[in-house]
Amino acid sequence: MNRITTALLAALEALIVVAIGVGIALVPLTILWGTHYGLSIDWFVFWRAAVDVWLLGNGVDLAVQLPVEVTTALGLAGAEAPFSLTIALLGFAVLAVLLGVRTGRRAAATRYAFTAAGAAVAGYALLAALLTLTAGQTIVTPAPVQGILLPTLVFAAGVLIGMTTGARAARPELPAWLSRPVGDQLSRIPAEVRTQLTAALRGGTAVTAAILALSGLAVFVAVLANFATVIGLYETLQTDVMGGIALTIGQLAFIPNLVIWAASWFIGPGIVLGTGSTVSPLGTSLATVPGLPLFGVLPQGTLEFGFLGLLVPVLVGFVLAVIVRQGLDRRPNAPHGPVPMLVTGVLIGIVAGILLGLAAWASTGAMGPGRLADVGPNPLLVGSLAALEVGVAAALGMLVGGRRAPGSIDRAEEVSTKR
């Protein structure tokens, strides 16, 4: 394929990615428009709602001004004044990143990798701008600059990951920096330090992934254990079939937020669900919360053994540090001695703290007016405590997880034989 064809196909793929993201919300809303409202309402109302959901899922802030009759029906303090929705439905962002990775891999496999990636990102930015301009209305208005930049940056991050991971199978026309591992870019750093830094990055990333995986499992178990409560909350909303489907899709997009919140709970700070409402291992204190059935899985009252949840990041940090140390000992340029091992463990904690803090920051925001303007974990507190807990545990794991050198084993066997 020539350069123009490659660019056009990449732009078409960006169009498909945007269509999938918007269509997830638009399809059930369109069916709801036909079945429940009998086509009596302007369809563009549902189009704007779907685009608003997509933009919110990509981190775009929405300014909301509810009509007087709606604020009266809701009975929420402060709902009559304009407020912002800033909490992202991270499921849409995760989907955009995954599809962006696919686009990046396809770009890396072409002869004109940068042309393909640039055309995909540029096409995505153009579509995001068009959607942002068509989504504005009197009730909900997206931030225009954010609407163009943030969805594009989310997709571009996925494209970059896809290009980097797909570089080993790329054509030789690709630049050299894409076809070499990250460690080769740090060739000026001494070999032992480079090995130590690589081990810390891998260990911190693995700890973060493990904590989030265990948090996802905890959310799954909580949903099963509180399934009757969740169904009861569905029934109180009195939605029809399509309304229930639309609500379920929105809650599925909120699952990544809940997983990150569970990780924040394990780390210790927990979350706030509005000013004055907290959910932490020490106990749960809730006032009025958003009427999402999924919130029925939140723990209630004081948990007698809730403090045991704090062991999760500690144990994960220790176990994975032992594994990292085992792999580090097999490397030819591995650092030796207790001090480098302690430093590596501390660096693992810092990497995990940064990543978990960023995840907490992405999952927090405003979910409504008044006290609901503060929802989610405290990113700085989550990152700091995660770095402390994982760092201490990882430092111990790096110290006790070493393998005996082959020479010392052979000498021990030789002495035993002589005796």
UniProtKB/TrEMBL annotation:
Instruction: Report any Pfam family annotated for this entry.
Output: DUF6350
**Membrane-spanning regions, if any?**
7-33, 81-101, 113-136, 148-170, 206-233, 245-267, 279-299, 305-328, 340-361, 381-401
Matching InterPro entries, A to Z? Answer: DUF6350 (IPR045931)
- UniProt keywords, alphabetically: Membrane, Transmembrane, Transmembrane helix
The source's domain of life comes to: Bacteria
Q: What is this protein called?
A: Uncharacterized protein
